[in-house]
């Protein structure tokens, strides 16, 4: 946790007094960084839009994009220009007052890259510094563009393109360095963060988060801490084949006060430690927050939130910085609500654990020991003797969707997710490069056929917006939300808290109570966080709108939405613009009458869950990819085989799966899809109002 030993705080410390280190209101007119300011608090000192005036908020302008996949980016506003990235990493610059497009740039990410991505062709944003826009692409490039023209200045490939690396996170700038991580742990990669010179694009350093599977040094600043701290915590050889994981796929924060970088590290490969590391060892630096010297990448300290993680409990979630009084002494702290369900407060100068309290339902651990810094894990959570229904599940109590901190209330607002997961070890696990390698039985994630079971599943799965007191470690208020995954947050000096949700409603709430004060139907689900800026004496609130990402795969427990193009929507007081309604899309009719297959639908379900579910959804419902129950390709064996085996649709992102499936497997999948299609056809044939259960609603 702190260099070679854990630094502990004995007894319970009252956390009193919290300062946001915020610049004055005048300096907050821009939104120059991903998290608003260097402390990543997603707070704005602007207050023209406030509890009294928000009822007059209206749409000022909007832009509709040409992609209908998920939109996760936070717009950046610098010097009157709003910069955004969309899915497929297309980059736009807008006049922030009028919405006029100043330039756009398409890096032309190859469609087959999508097969390497767990979670859609999304982008969480760009960085802007010294007249340059820095952006990363799904296929692993880091780009520098001229901020005025959008013309490329340099491009660097940051990953081994022969492996299944992807990038979905936003770069961050630290002085004359731009930093970027990567994703793809389940597919067989080794995680790291890399720093490049902002002017030339030259690689300056890399910090690897897990030991080199080949047992040799990398010639990077991570060599010594990996040798001394990490290597003794790994066992066996399975992880060497898979690369170990530990990708830095989201939160990277630069602390100018200490000239340090904090990175959040992800899960291992496979997830199950019994398979990955003979069931023992902490497996550093998986699921850890690691502090590095910004200029050199040298290790300073680490804290591991989930030692020996078996549950996909990443620590890649939003890292927030602040100053906090503890016993009358001001300490520089780091706060995070990672997937595992505990809210952590650390002294960011040395990694000392100050507080760790559950912010959502947790049953895998009874608490966190402040003396050792480790969670007190219940034996059943290792799912060694029997399956375990665990809270939170692998989706996490909180994922990448940003939190916000209000200087007025002293509260941290968290978009939480309540969704348990049945953990069952996969007895047939074997590593397959470029394929999902979890070591957890995927069939346990399927949506059941039984209507009562579906109802119970829906009841257990919901979202909550909570107001967390980091001083006391308690929830001050919460608001239940119908669906599990909702948008990130923005807090303002106007006493407001902004958030969009899965149903397409954009809310402004009273930050003190959570009561809604204003609502706007944006016409599509929201996962992105809003931001705000002031230009020409007027305050604006901007939001990327577009339903997608991993949330879109969860079958019956997320709202059904047609695929709709994404939009950037910008709001201001007394604005009267109207965006046209999205056209109603009639679902393609299902007609599989008389079609048969000699395949085994039970084996087909297992093969589907293993190979197809990640993109095509639970129970083949389809979300950001084709609804296979309605596809013509399932109507004949050769048709489906031509896609799955021969790769006929590779140019559209549906690559060949011949490495993992043979024609018998494909016919079994076809048998399963016909079963689901027949079920849907019967459900849609029932009169309106008749009871039915369908995977698409």
TrEMBL record:
Q: Which PROSITE patterns match?
A: BACTERIAL_PQQ_2, CYTC, PROKAR_LIPOPROTEIN
This protein's cofactor list reads:
pyrroloquinoline quinone; heme c; Ca(2+)
- Return the cofactor note field: Binds 1 PQQ group per subunit.
**A Pfam family per the record:** PQQ
Asked if Oxidoreductase is a keyword of the record, the answer is yes
Quote one Gene Ontology molecular function term.
Answer: oxidoreductase activity, acting on CH-OH group of donors
Where the record annotates domain Cytochrome c, the positions are: 599-677
| Disulfide bond sites | 118-119
Membrane-spanning segments: none
Task: State the superkingdom.
Answer: Bacteria
Q: Where along the chain is Ca(2+) bound?
A: 186, 267, 312
Please list the residues that bind pyrroloquinoline quinone: 124, 168, 184-185, 247, 339
Give the signal peptide as a residue range, or say none if absent.
1-22
UniProt-annotated binding residues for heme c: 612, 615-616, 654
Q: Which residues form the active site?
A: 312
**Which protein family is named in the record?**
Belongs to the bacterial PQQ dehydrogenase family.
Protein name (Swiss-Prot/TrEMBL)? PQQ-dependent dehydrogenase (Methanol/ethanol family)
The uppermost taxa in this organism's lineage are: Bacteria, Pseudomonadati, Pseudomonadota, Alphaproteobacteria, Sphingomonadales
